[in-house]
Amino acid sequence: MPCVSPDGKPTSSGTAVLKSLKEGALSPEEIANKTGQPLFRVRSGLRELKTAGFVEEAADKYELSTTGANVS
Amino acid sequence: MVEVQKEECILPVLGQTAPDFEAPTTQGNLRLSDYKGMWLILFSHPADFTPVCTTEFMAFSEMYEELKKRNTELLGLSVDSVSSHIAWIRNCEEKMGVKIPFPIIADLNKDVARKYGMIHPGQSKTETVRCVFIIDPESKIRAMLYYPLTTGRNMAEILRLIDALQTADKHKVATPANWMPGDPVVVPPPNTTEAAEERLKQGYDCKDWYLCKKKLPET
């Protein structure tokens, strides 16, 4: 998985995405620009991070959940 | 006489919306929609750890930076597992010194292969043939190439095809035989007698009213 390991912890790519959200909600395109990760991987990774409870989606943007804020 | 068993092979057609999928890859689960807004080259190969495929993967990897400049991503596919793909990628890096930067779909259940008509029973009942689908930012299939198992693909032609499609879209033109970036392009032919009459007075390089070329401004 690109953003969440099978043990449920964020990978280095996942941690980079979570860190990019520390200052507030961002769109996938903004996250890709900030992290330098390809947009297709950011979109896929955000799905995983959302399923794992690290991020929440609102109005096409993503923000850290309480769990995500604690690990980033 | 050889009895040919009838097997279903549905081929997509140019201009249709590319069949959607969600599939495990070497870079996580990916959906076609993850590539929205960019060009995608979806390509299949028969099997990991085979010689022609290995040469192709090295060549695709060498082309990757050029593709990125063209807002184009690569996505490979075979019916091997993610573990097999990972082992092969590691082998390519270790033995050939080439890092494979793009994801590869592990299509074990042949779900994606069937949607894209990648299995041709006349070639192999189990392996995917060498397909290339060029999918545009709106998820439309814009070009398809099918190569047999024996023949490796020509990366320069794939790159040329991307350049030709992007040029056609940007400038509303067509590209003639053997066109390369920088060459004159074909002006779409007139579709009325009035426009045909006017065409020859428009300053294009015309052989006749229906075959006119022009140079594009340098970018």
Mean pLDDT of chain B: 94
Element order of chain B: H for helix, E for strand? EEEHEHEHEEHEHEE
Count of separate structural domains of chain B: 2
In order across it, which strands form the biggest sheet of chain B? Answer: 5-4-3-6-7
In helices, the fraction of residues of chain B equals 25-40%
Features:
heterodimer, A: 72 residues, mainly alpha, Arc Repressor Mutant, subunit A, 2 strands, B: alpha+beta, Glutaredoxin, Antioxidant, Horf6, Chain A, domain 2, 2 domains, 5-stranded mixed β-sheet, 21% strand
Explained architecture:
- The complex is a heterodimer of chains A (72) and B (219).
- By secondary structure, chain A is mainly alpha-helical.
- Chain A has one domain: Winged helix-like DNA-binding domain superfamily/Winged helix DNA-binding domain (Arc Repressor Mutant, subunit A).
- Chain A has helices at residues 12-20, 28-35, 39-51, 66-71; strands spanning 55-58, 61-64.
- In chain A, a hairpin with a 2-residue loop joins strand 1 (55-58) and strand 2 (61-64).
- The longest helix of chain A has 13 residues, at 39-51.
- The radius of gyration of chain A is 10 Å and the shape is globular.
- Chain B is α+β, with helices and mostly antiparallel strands.
- Chain B contains 5 helices and 10 strands, in the order E-E-E-H-E-H-E-H-E-E-H-E-H-E-E.
- In chain B, the strands form 3 sheets. In chain B, strands 5-4-3-6-7 form a 5-stranded mixed sheet, with helices on one face.
- The longest helix of chain B has 19 residues, at 51-69.
- Chain B is elongated, with a radius of gyration of 20 Å.
- The mean pLDDT of chain B is 94.
- Chain A binds chain B through residues 1-3, 38-41, 43-45, 47-48, and chain B through 27-31, 33-35, 37-38, 73.
What's a concise summary of this model?
The complex is a heterodimer of chains A (72) and B (219). Chain A starts with 11 loop residues before the first helix and ends with a helix. Chain A is 50% helix and 11% strand.
